[in-house]
Write a structure and sequence with these properties.
This protein is α+β, with helices and mostly antiparallel strands and 602 residues long. Helix content is 31%, strand content 21%.
């Protein structure tokens, strides 16, 4: 029986030791005073007996016979009530090993005492034995007493709690809870033991001490504002240009011309074709326009064109001149006249697009020694005959007749076959049968080629073209510029006057630039020289008509078995009567279809 009782007692003891019985919890309050660890009201609730306090039935907390009003574990202080009669020795005895230090100033019979861990060890010595080390956890720090051995436990900066309590210890302080600790109303972010501040949007800096306005807060909105107004401006410009193009198209007769067989180009197409009118594509420059080479890509392949673009002159004058030139070239369709390839009506002044003539101007071939095409007398005569055919067509077959007004070697182009093409109708005029003579408001033309009668009277006629053609004949024969001078017997004589006198004196062979291979050729060259002299007569009425000049040159060509001049063109068939040619009398029949835009080949 005793054995059973002993075993039962042993089992109950083991059960209690294993936690089978509920331990009574530690009370942490005595009346209104909180009792934090390491202090306690029971031996198992305090760090040691040195921190054991007594709570009386009247809820008074005593340390010995000293009443405790408050315990602060953060600052390691204790507020105590002093007895009516007391001295420091009594206080020291009351707190024994907690090593209290009496504050020299006391009021209302109370005193502030400092307490700590009185183990006669420094912090470094205490840390060496973690089992007895009073500071709980990694978020605490240890501080030595100033003059005595022992230490305090504190929570690290940014942490709060009881640094002696190993269960809870020191926990992180959330500094970002209200109120916001960040200046400038920045964004607070909690970090272990501390916090960071981010400057508000539009500012920059370290957040905790300074936030300055960011340059991006000015730059970015400025960029957006500029981009917005740029986009709006671009849209307005686009709409304005579109309406302007539509207005120009209607004002330039686009509604009428688009129903005819003339190709109409957009402004963008011509800009692309000429690489935005790059100087490397410039072919030449006239009185009020420059000509640019361009390439248009089409279904049938690439087409090389020549675009005539106006200069920056008075807009009303340019508009009048270009519309006038458009009216002229729309009337012409001849193999020896540069053809109109198309027009652009979107610009304020229409742009004229001509066929591209690849071998430059007659002027270049005459006055550049590198040219070989004019070394042949037959080539020179053929080119002269082709120019004459073009002028004959304009004077006799065009309806109404056309005065070119600026015939010169610069305005005669040579194509890939070195056939002549008359170009540049900027100064041309249309004349009616009842007004064969036109009074010019201003003299237009090129020095050396202008009809002297036109210069003195201001009246331009088809005979003015005859005179200019005579100058070109002299230029072909002598390879001299019409403004050049010949020095004879110490006197300078203009080449035109000298040539006329040399033909009359039968000494013209001294002035020609090539030698004939036979007497027959020399005779024919003399006939061409005489034609030139007749064309250069000072009196326009005595000059031959271009029809007569063309017939004579054609006869000379035929007699020399040279290249046959083709007299049929796309609108006009000028037939040469072979029987009349043999008798030096050629009649030209112009079979003319209805002229104007309706018969345009484009």
């Amino acid at each position: 029986m005793k054995m059973v009782h002993w075993l039962l007692t042993l089992a109950v003891a083991w059960w209690l030791r294993q936690g089978g019985a509920q331990k009574e919890p530690c009370s942490r309050r005595c009346g209104k005073v909180e009792v934090p660890f390491p202090f306690g009201l029971k031996a198992n609730c305090s760090r040691s007996r040195d921190f054991l306090l007594n709570c009386t039935s009247a809820d008074q907390l005593l340390s010995g016979n000293i009443m405790v009003h408050e315990i602060d574990v953060h600052r390691s202080i204790m507020e105590v009530g002093l007895p009516t009669e007391h001295n420091d020795t009594q206080l020291l005895l009351a707190f024994r090993r907690s090593i209290p230090m009496l504050d020299t100033s006391s009021e209302n019979m109370t005193a502030t005492l400092y307490w700590g861990i009185a183990e006669n060890r420094t912090c470094e010595e205490a840390k060496s034995n973690q089992s007895s080390y009073a500071c709980a956890g990694k978020n605490t720090k240890c501080e030595d007493y100033g003059g005595e051995r022992g230490y305090f436990c504190r929570c690290k900066d940014g942490y709060e709690g009881n640094p002696y309590n190993r269960t809870q210890g020191c926990t992180d302080v959330n500094e970002c809870e209200n109120p916001n600790p960040c200046p400038f109303n920045g964004k607070c972010k909690n970090t272990p033991g501390s916090y960071t501040c981010h400057c508000p949007f539009g500012t920059r800096g370290y957040g905790k001490d300074t936030c300055r306005i960011s340059p991006w807060i000015v730059v970015v909105p400025a960029i957006f504002i500029v981009a917005f107004f740029t986009a709006v401006g671009a849209l307005v410009l686009y709409m304005w240009r579109r309406r302007s193009k539509e207005k120009n198209f209607k004002r330039n007769g686009g509604e009428l011309l688009k129903h005819h067989r003339v190709q109409i180009f957009t402004e963008a197409e011509l800009i692309k074709a000429t690489n935005n009118y790059d100087n490397s594509n410039k072919l030449g420059e006239g009185g009020f326009g420059s000509v640019y080479r361009g390439k248009v890509v089409g279904d049938a392949g690439d087409t090389i064109i020549a675009v005539k673009k106006p200069k920056d002159l008075h807009k009303s004058l340019i508009k009048m001149d270009f519309q006038h030139e458009l009216q002229i070239v729309m009337q012409i369709n001849h193999k020896n006249v540069v053809k109109l390839h198309g027009i652009c009506l979107e610009t304020r002044t229409p742009l004229l697009v001509y066929e591209y003539i690849s071998n430059g101007t007659l002027f270049q071939h005459i006055h550049q020694n590198a040219s070989t095409i004019l070394r042949s007398w037959k080539n020179r005569l053929r080119i002269a005959a082709e120019i004459a055919l073009a002028l004959e067509y304009m004077h006799s077959c065009a309806e109404p007749p056309i005065i070119h007004g600026d015939i010169k070697s610069v305005n005669i182009l040579l194509d890939h076959n070195y056939s002549a093409k008359v170009s540049d109708f900027g100064t041309s005029v249309l004349i009616s049968p009842e007004h064969s003579n036109m009074v010019a408001t201003k003299i237009q033309g090129t020095l050396g080629y202008i009809d002297p009668e036109y210069l003195t009277t201001g009246i331009i006629t088809i005979k003015s073209d005859v005179y200019s053609f005579g100058v070109v004949l002299v230029e072909l024969l002598t390879r001299k510029k019409p403004t050049s001078f010949i020095t004879r017997s110490g006197e300078s004589i203009n080449i035109i006057h000298y040539f006329i006198s040399s033909v009359k004196d039968k000494t013209f062979s001294d002035n020609i630039n090539f030698e004939a291979t036979s007497e027959d050729e020399m005779e024919r060259i003399g006939m061409v020289a005489e034609i030139a002299v007749k064309c250069l007569d000072q009196t326009s009425a005595k000059r031959p008509a271009m029809r007569e000049v063309a017939e004579q040159l054609a006869r000379i060509n035929q007699e020399l078995d040279s290249l046959t001049v083709e007299e049929n063109n796309e609108e006009t068939n000028c037939e040469v009567d072979e029987e009349s040619l043999a008798s030096h009398s050629t009649s030209v029949i112009c079979e003319t279809s209805q002229h104007g835009t309706s018969s345009s080949p484009f």
